[in-house]
Amino acid sequence: MRIPFDLLAALLALETVRELYAKNPAWYWFETTSGEAVLALCCFWVLSWLLYEWAARRTEWAIRWGNNPSGSRLTQTAEGHSLAPPRRHPMETHARLATAAQVLSVVMYVGFIFAFAWPQKTQDWMTALVTPGPFAVVAGSQFIGGILDLGPFAVAMLLALLPRHRVLHAELGRKTRIWKWLSFELRLTFPPLVLWFAFYACMDLAALVLPEQTVKAVLTQSWLTVLLGAGVLVVFALAIMPWLMVRLWHARPMEDTELHARMQALLRRSGVKARAILEWGPGGTGFANACVLGPWAPFRYILISPGLMRLLSPEECEAVIAHEIGHVRHGHLGLLVFVILGLAAFSDLILRGMKLIEIEGPIEQSAMLMLLIVIYLRLLFGFVMRRCERQSDLSSAELMGTPTPLITALEKLALLSGNIREVYSWHHDSIARRVERLAALGSDPEAMQRYHKSLRRMRWGLLGFSFVSVALMLTMALKYPEESEEMKREDTPAMVVIKQDERAGRS
Q: Could you point out which of 50, 111, 397, 471 has its C-alpha 20 to 30 Å from the C-alpha of 345?
């Protein structure tokens, strides 16, 4: 599963714009019709696709005329041709250009939904289609509204995958049918949406099943809303998400081979419990990866792709599985869940602090939250993940008795993935630095223990930060309940219908 920063930023912007129009239903930059909004939507899709197409064409130019697969380039000298110093790898070039395209695409999406009041228009369409009638409750559905409101950006992300498929074909020589590749890429990219829509589905279900007074009583108690939200997140991460990912990614049992028996023996020797070791990923796409799902043993799965097993020797496959087991042995999965909770609570504290100093504009709050997303995910979260990856590398060396199998596995993957050995990854670091760390520490038990000790201090510090942030957020919610109460009251389906009638009367 990837972490799509552009999708997270789009979700944040959408929630901010929804809040703005909920508080100011008559506020517009300029009056627009539904036809004009649809035309602007089509323009947004075209411009977004052109940005990613530009990034792909620049990369293709670098592949064909700039760099060879090793990153060096041929130059003409008096004695003939020679290799000049290496330039940036084409895939790193594409990653940087794609990041710039993502930023611009998010900015255009925010401008579109902000200027054309897209959330209000989708609400108008839902209300006009189903009210009056037996399906009037759909007019206030958070789930359906979320699909309609985020749909434009989801389509833009889908269009962005088309040029990327062409770049991978040019750089790695992967001749994969585009629909097969797209299907798998979407299943890897969009799982973060599952949690977001799960919250909305729970809200819709509560509105249908529970008495209206009960729902209002819960929504007007901000501390209770916070606890329920945190509870849903923890339960979803512990049990529902792993079960769902296994089915979404079409994971399947491994054949009863010698390699499977060796992996099972390694799992028993480690003392880590898991429901199964499964295969995942479509064949013929060049996909080579492994992962572990589930902080809780009853819902934990270890996944490895057939492509990876074909590329590596049995001992190297064991080393990769030992790396994934290392994530479990050192509590990385549970740590990430609590870090996310802590970061969410800390963000809420910052927003409450902005309100206390009378900075309450949704634009200012949105800018602050986007800045926090960059700081949290790309800096703090990335730093934590890189340290965890290094610890899992060392844990693999401990479990295997030597770092050599994992080193050779990493070197093979770097070579067969387009010689990406020096390409930096914000969450895994470069393969070159991982190999260097493994070679330096992987055969020294004392050095590995010192590294594990430093990670334990970091883990306890992050857990303490998360606990304090959540406790302070609950305290603030208890001390200042009127702010959340007002916000919830304005967002109820009844108020939405009233605001629709008000706008209809003014027009």
A: 111
